[in-house]
Thiamine-monophosphate kinase
Amino acid sequence: MEFQLIDRIRERTAQGREDVRLGIGDDAALVAPPPGQEIAIAIDTLVEGVHFPQGTAPADIGWKSLAVNLSDLAAMGASPAWALLALTLPTQAAAQTRDFIDGFADGFAALAQPHRLALIGGDTTRGALSISVAVHGFVPPGKALTRAGARAGDVVLVTGTLGDAAAGLQLLQQGARIDEGDGRAAYLIERLNRPTPRLAAGLALRERASACIDISDGLLADLGHICAASGLGAEIDAALLPRSSMLLGAFDDVAARDFALSGGDDYELCFTVPPARVAEVQTDLARMGCGATRIGRMLESDGVRVRDVHGQWLEVARRGWDHFAA
Amino acid sequence: MEFQLIDRIRERTAQGREDVRLGIGDDAALVAPPPGQEIAIAIDTLVEGVHFPQGTAPADIGWKSLAVNLSDLAAMGASPAWALLALTLPTQAAAQTRDFIDGFADGFAALAQPHRLALIGGDTTRGALSISVAVHGFVPPGKALTRAGARAGDVVLVTGTLGDAAAGLQLLQQGARIDEGDGRAAYLIERLNRPTPRLAAGLALRERASACIDISDGLLADLGHICAASGLGAEIDAALLPRSSMLLGAFDDVAARDFALSGGDDYELCFTVPPARVAEVQTDLARMGCGATRIGRMLESDGVRVRDVHGQWLEVARRGWDHFAA
């Protein structure tokens, strides 16, 4: 039974990777890593009602469960190769399980295929809906991006726009439907449900960014991790935060700012670059269709502080998501 | 918060592996695989009430969540190296969470340390208690044991004794306490809660066994996987099934036989060996303190059939655990 379910997903994911010697169906998979590369490995779990709202479409859950993991590889500057999937599903009618699996597999595969990611192992169990995915990617020795390399004076940048996913979640919680109105809700909810891991940007940042992290828990929390790992502080200019026109059309300026500062689930990259290289990095990322906006700089201090549009220091109460907080 | 919990476990697991370039604490771990080795990778999830009874001690849960995964590496003939842990815990008082984590970490580490297994990544989330562990081990190219290589005429063997874990589960469900009586219950429950992955045996079987699997779902189900993957059938002699004196002391012969045939969770190895090499394999495994008993042979047919002590074919209704069955 286990393999029948996992097989429905495997059938939809890219095959033919030469480095996969034995895929799904035995006690373990066998892979032959490329000589001279390091392997970046990450695992993340999504739980219904914690990491995605109840009622989220199976295809969106499949996409997101892979996306949040690929985002970790992006933040390391690694290129994806293999994934494992542990899927826990509630007891329900067989037809419902099959429908869920087929939708989940479609969403997972839609993201896996363009990256030639192979699903090499899986486990299915009964219980409350949750999904753990482990991913593996390659990076040349010593070239991985980490949180620890920022220097005082480095410029802080982020890819894309911030706050959309948290705004989408709020709209969903207020009962918005994606087929409503002017397309803003649809856009923001899509940003929540189908985040784009910034893999190409991560590769382009190797040997250029001094530190990098993906924004899963909110900008302040995640930039705080760079600060802690690098032994520095940072200041951010709220006026510089990149925000989508959809976000600014759907919420007032203060709400949009707070989503951008503290909202989780954007899966953009936050990274630091020496001042002399900022223009080059922005040009290169723009060429791949991924904006990179400077929002602040690293300081010889600790913690993250935020200047508002009037030049005053902001008090920011909510510093990010902590899924493990009671 | 996440890393504080995972750190309590990491502190207790083996450090100082030179192939771990970056451990827990960044977006991903970085490892440098040994040149010229394949990597065996497996993932398994344990859910409370499905894979272990409610009330199981946290240390036993920690041990077992790693053991079931190391058992997959054993079945491939791989030597363990790295693990990832995704831990989902219910919302509860902070002190309770800390106690659970400390116990879990002690059990996990007690099994990880002798194998020099490094915990390199983790994720903690809130939800119904469940644990996913992914493990990585090394095996020389082309030398891994699989389910697919058995030939007609090969002898079927198993390590250790069968049925103890299922008997332990039944005793627990009947309200047995481990401090009761003559030690039989304690032994059988320990076999359920603290299975020993047969890693050394798996290594010794490389280049000798033609096929191998670990017994997690019950002998009949798991030998059935070898049959399916090898395109063969098998016959088993019930009189030859290795059963512990504890099992035979606590249950009658028929119950003990059924536990040995269909009980899950033993995590012994079931493997096939050409007749000419059986004695050599048995001698080598005995030298490492691991009995290996011949129980049957592979046939040009399909499915697994069982002969009882009178030479009659047994009807066996329950062919193993299927955790995913509704």
